[in-house]
Amino acid sequence: MAHSAIAPRILCIGIPVRDLTFRVEAVPERGSKANATHLAEISGGNALNAAIAMARLGGRVAFAGPMGDPQETSSGFILERMAAEGIDVGRIVRVPGAATPVSAIIIDASGERTLTIYRDPALWSVKLSDADELLACCQAVLVESRCGAFCIDLCTEARRRGIPVIVGVDRAMALADDLLTAASHLLFASEQVQETAGITEDGEALKRLAKLTPAFLAATRGPHGTIWLNEAGQLEETPAFPVEAVDTLGAGDVFHGAFTLRLAEGGGLREALRFAAAAAALKCTRHGGGLAAPQRVEVEELLRSV
Q1: In the sheet where 38-44 sits, what is the strand order?
Q2: Sign of CA dihedral 67, 68, 69, 71
Q3: Segments in the chain below pLDDT 70
């Protein structure tokens, strides 16, 4: 697969999370106890998982967003792992007195995950660096949908400069959310596109949202592939790669990261969606959330094999 000899620079905006993951045979019933077969402590968060994926696939990645007080331990744990992946952390803003988010994640035998997370409300008060600094030499911006409150001005400026803004949506958005119109590409999960549009069918939900935003719209559906609207407003589908899933944690984030990178490299929409599907499928075959994101050679080998 041809791609630029100069790796594109991509800015990720989000809130990193310290994940505690527990593997179990089955999710325990309410009020009961269950022994875990495995425990792992990893770094996570939607944009961070995507950033790791992009770095492993050949992108130059910078990260911006809030983290907790410099004295608390979770942020140090995460920053060490970001540095190990080659992610530029110079634009992360430490929020005095705040705690970096921590989540507890249960992964059952099918690979499906159930989680709970704590995010300190103080993190939403963050002020990002100047747009000129953040967007310098930037070929794309990837942002978590929940972060619009502190990055909408930056996203608007990025679009004014002709820089794509890809929003990874993992929760329902308000129809008045400014990111709906500031984004160039909106990548939903199936449940979230239905909740956002108020329609219980992915294709019709996308069509309704298309009346509210000029952005490219797609909805990922796990093993059922991705449904999306082409330039003519017609529905198309990109199949998923069949794999035996053992851990779906972070798969959507890896999809978002791979899609963004391939787009920034100059790939078309169909190519970027297929590239993303391959990366997400490979991630599902191994444990570790975003840290199980594949290398470029693995993705290209899978693409050649089918």
Answers
A1: 38-44, 17-23, 102-107, 113-118
A2: negative
A3: 1-5
Instruction: Confirm whether pTM is higher than 0.85.
Output: yes
Query: Tell me, what's the pLDDT at 306?
Result: 79
Contact 15, 43 (CB under 8 A): no
Residue 80, number of CB atoms within 10 A of its CB = 10
Distance (Å, whole) CA 54 – CA 50: 6
Using CA atoms, how far apart are residues 274 and 290, in angstroms rounded to an integer? 19
Give the per-residue pLDDT at 2: 44
- Cβ-Cβ contacts under 8 Å for 241 (sequence gap 6 or more): 277, 278, 281, 282, 302, 306
Please write down the HEC assignment for all residues of the chain.
CCCCCCCCEEEEECCCEEEEEEECCCCCCCCCCCCCCEEEEEEECHHHHHHHHHHHCCCEEEEEEEECCCCCHHHHHHHHHHHHCCCEEEEEEECCCCCCCEEEEEECCCCCEEEEEECCHHHHHCCCCCHHHHHCCCCEEEEEHHHHHHHHHHHHHHHHCCCCEEEEECCCCCCCCCHHHHCCEEEEEHHHHHHHHCCCCHHHHHHHHHCCCCCEEEEECHHHCEEEECCCCCEEEECCCCCCCCCCCCHHHHHHHHHHHHHHCCCCHHHHHHHHHHHHHHHHCCCCHHHHCCCHHHHHHHHHHC
Q: How far apart are the first and last CA of the chain?
A: 14
Q: 8 Cβ partners below 8 Å, 6+ apart?
A: 59, 60, 139, 140, 261, 264, 265
Span 172-184, pLDDT tens digits: 999 999 999 999 9
pLDDT tens readout for residues 274-298: 999 999 999 999 988 889 999 999 9
Q: Tokens in use for 2?
A: 């041809």
